Amino acid sequence: MPRKCKGARLHLRPARRDSAGKITHHPTWVIRDGTSYRATGCAEREVAKAEQALKEYIALKYRPERREQDIDKIPVADVLSIFIDDRPDLYVENPNAPKFLKRIERLNNFWKAMMLSAVNGETCRAYAHDRGNRGGARRDLEDLRAAIGHHTFEGLHRGTIRVVLPKKGQPRDRWLTRSEAARLIWACWRARETQTIHRGPNKGHKVVTDKRPLRHVARFIVIGIYSGTRAGAIASASPIPAVGRSFVDLDRGMYYRRALGAAETNKRQTPMPIPPRLLAHLRRWHRKGIIRSHFVEWHGEAVKSVKTGFAKAVLLSHIEHASPHTLRHTAATWLMQNGTIPWEAAGYLGMSVETLLRVYGHHHPDYLKDAVAKMTAKPTASASPQKRQDKTNTSAIKVQ
């Protein structure tokens, strides 16, 4: 009787030696699937990375059926799998890939083996309750809705599915004053790293070193305030054009915020001319070798997020309720306060005029200016109802 197949699994390939007994290849993890082997590129100690490689291999190996079926027979996991297979632009060479894949993982973990017909208002509300964070739940369910929409567009199911989203939260309007912005930048620039002594008579004591751990955050803040750009496009900003990077043309003074090779999305990452003061900073950082490939680097490498460093800077500067996205609010608010034409401000920020006026319009010096002026003005003769009535009721006889 043939032996039952064990399926794909990890196998530690032992070290290989030459005829003299010298090690030519160190032990590595490989994926064994039946009689075939697939390299993972992971050394013996990199167990977690090898397990992740196995997980990805199994996910890629599975291919759900692609034919029209009733929604009672289609697992939600298959819908999500097809969406991932057909939309590699969402996670291949995309700086937001880890967040996207994490959202898909959360959706998979909740719906598991549930059929597509189980997606309704009740289960969506249950997911939002289980997720805890209303904004996060809404973002996750938007991905589920997109996956189901793609499945519908491909003609792979019969029936109508409605994904019910939690209500949108109120738009955040926290912005920084110029004094707060200066305090935040200086807190990042002057911060020094504290280390603990682990041996000797001073063991356990903390000493301040000359290392400056937050200066990359200072550069992030300067770019964010002067450009109003989203955090992801700031993190990918580079003086060198390459796939996955937002190119900053230092010669022409243009910032191409949408990363090279990235698809156009609703997050209007439009090109923008760089203000002279910001351009001077960018050119100086590049000329002096302060940065290499990206304008926001940590130990010479591009950063994916500055949330931790930004939170530390907020704490040091004694500023409340600020996040990296606050910089975008700040730029929009300052533009409105300075009386910028809304159409130009919207183009500069990469947002619609409607959104700009709805969220930030009240900061403009001309906001409802005409209404305020006419509310306290004396009525004109033509506008006064009483005068019009008196003129109509006059008993004077007009002589021809």
Strand and helix layout:
Elements: E1 9-13, E2 16-17, E3 23-25, E4 28-33, E5 36-43, H1 47-61, E6 69-70, H2 76-86, H3 97-111, H4 121-131, H5 134-153, E7 157-158, H6 178-190, E8 194-196, E9 206-208, H7 215-227, H8 231-235, E10 237-238, E11 246-249, E12 254-255, E13 272-273, H9 276-287, E14 297-298, E15 301-302, H10 307-317, H11 326-337, H12 342-349, H13 353-360, H14 369-375, H15 385-392
Parallel strand pairs: 6-7, 10-11
Antiparallel strand pairs: 1-4, 2-3, 4-5, 8-9, 11-12, 12-13, 14-15
What does this structure look like?
It is a single chain. This protein is an alpha+beta fold and 400 residues long. The protein folds into three domains: 61 residues; 106 residues, DNA polymerase, domain 1, CATH 1.10.150; 171 residues, Intergrase catalytic core (hpI Integrase, Chain A). The strands form six sheets. It has a four-stranded mixed beta sheet. The chain has a three-stranded antiparallel beta sheet with strand order 1-4-5, with helices on one face. A hairpin with a 2-residue loop joins strand 14 and strand 15. Helix 3 crosses helix 5 and helix 6 runs antiparallel to helix 7. It is globular and about 100 Å long. The protein starts with 8 loop residues before the first strand and ends in an 8-residue tail after the last helix. The relative contact order is 0.07. The mean pLDDT is 87.
Main structural class: alpha+beta
Instruction: Give the class-level CATH name of the largest domain.
Output: Mainly Alpha
Helix content: 40-55%
CA gyration radius, whole angstroms: 30 Å
Shape: globular
Write down the overall mean pLDDT: 87
